[in-house]
Amino acid sequence: MTQISRDSFGSAALVNPVAEETLQAAQKYRLARVKQQLVEHDCGAILLYDPVNIRYATDSSNMQVWTLHNFARYTLVFADGPVIHWEFHNCEHLLSGNQQIDEIRTAINWSFFGAGSRIDERVKLWAEEIAHLITQHSPDNRRLALDKADIEGIDCLREKGLRVVEGHSLMEQARKIKSAAEIALMQWTIQVCEKGIQRMYDELKPGMTENALWAWLHYENIRHGGEWIETRLLSSGPRTNPWMQESSNRIMQTGEILSFDTDLIGPYGYCADISRAWTVGHVPPTPEQRHIYQLAYEQVQYNMSLLKAGLSYKEFSQKAWKIPAEYYPNRYCCLAHGIGLADEYPAIAHQGNDWNSSGYDGLFEENMVVCVESYIGAKDGREGIKLEQQVLITKDGIIELSTYPWEENWL
User: Fold this and answer.
1) What is the 3-state secondary structure (H, E, C) of the chain?
2) How confident is the prediction along the chain (411 residues), in pLDDT tens digits per residue?
3) I need a surface site. Which of 32, 135, 139, 242 has the fewest CB within 10 A?
């Protein structure tokens, strides 16, 4: 891979390179993927509540994080029929010009927040409307896939004669294979993310808090049209071991390790999931810091070298870089995972007990995008290193989509 220098990122805002034709191509491809999954699984339609799934099918978004826990907007996609979307109160104007949606209605919110003691009344109205539309547009196939809903809604749909089946897996399968247009959108998000990473690198100084540094990633994401960041995984010094401690008001000290994981949902809703590690103050690492960085880097590079279309998840797990025993207890939760509009299927388990308890097989395919993970930190050790790289699988191998430099002078 050709590395670029940090100076390449500059301080001025980036110019969006995405053409309208690229966005439209991605929209059409994604909706076609959803309909293809419905046909393959013999479902007449799928009802979507997950805002990431709604975004994938319709390229519409509204209060994405809020609607993750408030069922206030939903979409019905027919295998051979229209796309009908229900939008939050007085928000129909947000969908003006959206060519993916055939009809817009006002949502019936039957969650406790929206309906209170009137849940039974509201959910019946909701189910009647859905059932009527299934009868109208899919009279010969009443199998309805559903990505998520409260139990009252599922029961009510079944009472209306619909055969409700699990639909989240259909959406994960649809989202798994990326088009060229999707890759272009994702690359723009990665550019924005790397701009934010560089801003953190430039702003990092001893005496500042973890939260103050983390805010710069949010700043660059938002000013470039990004949306949110799914986690707050930035920590320093002793808080880097064990991993998964979120950013805090801890004041960072010269020479400590700083590790982070971006989990950034950027422009057009795509995710950039990149991890790097530095020292606070950008001073030379200690021998121990250098050693654990070297191990994490080796793990990422070795496991990336294994990836190819046709390789099974199990074989990848079996051949993966062997984590030294002293670091194994604090291993990262997976070796690699898919990514698109968010972290996606698959998540590849480590061999041994992890595979036996939760591993599942499948095949890496051309045009999947995956993130290769590493965390190296000894159990009861002082510090840890988190590294991660986002790559595209092609017929000829992989392309590293993230270009942000490694600490090569530590290697």
Assistant:
1) CCCCCHHHHCCCCCCCCCCHHHHHHHHHHHHHHHHHHHHHCCCCEEEECCHHHHHHHHCCCCCCCHHHHCCCCEEEEECCCCEEEEECCCCHHHHCCCCCCCEEEECCCCCHHHHHHHHHHHHHHHHHHHHHHHHHHCCCCCEEEECCCCHHHHHHHHHCCCEEEECHHHHHHHHHCCCHHHHHHHHHHHHHHHHHHHHHHHHCCCCCEHHHHHHHHHHHHHHCCCCEECCCCEEEHHHHCCCCCCCCCCECCCCCEEEEECCEECHHHCEECCEEEEECCCCCCCHHHHHHHHHHHHHHHHHHHHCCCCCEHHHHHHHCCCCCCCCHHHCCCCCEEEECCCEEEEEECCCCHHHHHHCCCCECCCCCEEEEEEEECCCCCCCCEEEEEEEEEECCEEEECCCCCCCHHHC
2) 334 566 666 678 999 999 999 999 999 999 999 999 999 999 999 999 999 999 999 999 999 999 998 889 999 999 999 999 999 999 999 999 999 999 999 999 998 898 999 999 999 999 999 999 999 999 999 999 999 988 999 999 999 999 999 999 999 999 999 999 999 999 999 999 999 999 999 999 999 999 999 999 999 999 999 999 999 999 999 999 999 999 999 999 999 999 999 999 999 999 999 999 999 999 999 999 999 999 999 999 999 999 999 999 999 999 999 999 999 999 999 999 999 999 999 999 999 999 999 999 999 999 999 999 999 999 999 999 999 999 999 999 999 999 999 999 999
3) 139
